[in-house]
């Protein structure tokens, strides 16, 4: 498994976001609202107004990765617990 090396910072947005936004839109939101660099390697976590959905974005060195999940997905029990 390929994973991060060393300590990884995780920042969680406290307000729900528009889930129609993609990776670029969420990266712009990180820069504008959180005032941090979306290309720093930090993992940013967002939730929808419906609390059963989350999105994560992070910079992997070659681009912004977007991971999306909802309660009906297979891995949600792992993420929610």
From TrEMBL:
Species of the source: Rhizobium rhizogenes (strain K84 / ATCC BAA-868) (Agrobacterium radiobacter)
Protein name per UniProt: Transposase number 2 for insertion sequence
PANTHER family (alphabetical): BLR8292 PROTEIN (PTHR36455:SF1), PTHR36455
InterPro entries registered for this protein in UniProt: Transposase_IS66_Orf2 (IPR008878)
Record keywords, A-Z: Plasmid
NCBIfam families for this protein: IS66_TnpB (NF033819)
């Amino acid at each position: 498994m390929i994973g991060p090396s060393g300590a990884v910072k995780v920042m969680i947005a406290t307000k729900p976001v528009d889930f129609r936004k993609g990776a670029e839109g969420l990266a712009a939101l990180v820069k504008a609202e959180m005032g941090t660099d979306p290309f720093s390697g930090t993992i940013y976590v967002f939730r929808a107004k419906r609390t059963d959905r989350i999105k994560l974005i992070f910079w992997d060195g070659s681009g912004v990765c977007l991971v999306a999940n909802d309660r009906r997905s297979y891995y949600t029990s792992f993420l929610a617990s």
